[in-house]
Amino acid sequence: MASVLIPARPAPPTYPPRRSLLVGSAFATTGAAMFVLTLVGLYLSARHASNGAWFKTPDAINIPLTQPNMQFLTLLVSSVMMQWAVYAIARNYRSHAYLALGITVLTGLAFVNQSLFLFKQMGLKMSAQEGPYFYALAGGHVALVCIGIVFIFLMTFRALGGQFSSRYPDGLSAAAIYWHTMVGLYGVIWLAVYIAK
Predict the structure, then answer these.
(1) b or e along 29-68 (b: 16 or more beta carbons within 10 Å of the residue's beta carbon)?
(2) What is the CATH number of the domain that holds 175?
(3) Domain assignment of residue 8, yes or no
């Protein structure tokens, strides 16, 4: 009896990886941005309705500009570092990516530290008319930055485990989308709250 040769089955087609992490991060980032921009609108509306009495009461506090300027500069540096991490992982420069992610987390923590120092130095009480609006806006943004730090930290551990590479850099790209948005939102807060006072 002659043996019958059965042709081998062709390999199944390979599909590009799903971008669910990027899409989910984009939706979450949009929601966070809408939250912060709504708070900016409420803050500006309340400031306009105060008829010039905003931070001008007899026991008014002085908002120094040094800390907000340094906070903005720190976030800009962290944004550059985050983009460096995305660039490095997309080219399999893993040591560069780890270094950039570490610097991003450290600068994010420095921003949180600077924010808490500013809040303590200002001494703004919640009983003041500006208090709830200021702390909702500035404190809300600090909370969102803390979420971003945790997100970057988790993506760093996944990168250390080898889950991200030039073939699948989506985790770091998703973290970068969120982080760059938080930096841009602080620019809006910096102009609306600290510069325009």
Answers:
(1) beebbeebeebbeebbeebeeeeeebbeeeeebebeeebb
(2) 1.20.120.80
(3) no
